[in-house]
Structure formats: C-alpha cells, structure tokens
Specification:
The two termini are 20 Å apart. Strands 1, 2, 3, 4, 5, 6, 7 and 8 form an eight-stranded antiparallel sheet that branches. The chain contains one helix and eight strands. The protein has one domain: Elongation Factor Tu (Ef-tu), domain 3 (Beta Barrel).
Length: 139
C-alpha cells in the first residue's frame, strides 16, 4: 500500500476548479447513530441511522471574477455539485477515486477575516443537498 501525501488534491465546486486555492480538504462519509436504549438494558444501544457526508474546506480568498468569492458567495442558499479527488494531475482510477455529490453550505462564510500580516482564508463546510449522498467513481 502506498502512503499518500496530500499535495495536489482536486476541488471543483459548481463547475469551478478551485484546486489552486485549496489549503485544506477533509471529506468524511458516515451515518448517524440513533439511540435505541430501553428500560431493562444494561448498556446503551444504537442503531444505524441516516447516512451523511461532510466536506470541510479552507481556501485562500480571491475576489477576482470567477474565483473563490464569486463562486462561494453565489452558492449561499442553493444546492450545487462538487467533486473531490486525491490528485488533480492523476487520472481517475482505483488509486485516485472521484467523489461527487450535491451539497449545501453549512452555516456562515467569513467574507473578510484575518490578522495583520496573515493570508486571507475562507473556511466552510458542505453538507448533503439531496438524497443521493456521495458517488465514488474509479474510472
């Protein structure tokens, strides 16, 4: 098994390739655990609940037309497609799968934030925007 080093991940949001502005990406897939504990049991019990995914993103802010601000700000209040791959330069394969889905922005997006001398970043999370969840492609 090859060790993976994150250095050229691919991030496309609503058809716009933002890979060259990405600082961090964290895509997680999972499900809720629903408690089903009842009287008379000695331990808490859980049953698998609804599936869910989340995508946490930090981008270098860019106010140019068609870049970070224009792309992300236009998505607030809508659903949109996204794609994430471990490598932008390698073809989609079993070792470089494509993860796609429809998402919504979760919470607030800081339009301007930072300290004196710091780079300006924008961080946000994407949650499921439809019932389809994540699609994984290897070809």
């Amino acid at each position: 098994m090859a060790i993976q080093i994150m250095k050229d991940a691919f991030l496309e949001i609503n058809g716009v390739d933002l890979s060259d502005h990405a600082v961090t990406l964290a895509l997680a897939d999972g499900q809720d655990a629903v408690e089903t504990t009842a009287m008379g049991t000695g331990n808490r019990r859980f049953t698998p609940g609804l599936r869910r995914f989340s995508l946490a993103v930090t981008l270098l802010q860019d106010y140019a037309a068609g870049s970070v601000y224009a792309t992300i700000n236009g998505l607030i209040g809508t659903t949109f497609p996204f794609e994430v791959r471990p490598s932008a330069t390698s073809p989609v394969s079993a070792t470089n799968p494509s993860f796609t889905g429809t998402g919504v922005i979760d919470g607030d997006i800081a339009l301007v934030a930072g300290n004196v001398g710091d780079r300006v970043e924008v961080s946000f999370s994407i949650l499921p925007g439809d019932d389809n969840g994540l699609t994984v492609s290897t070809s």
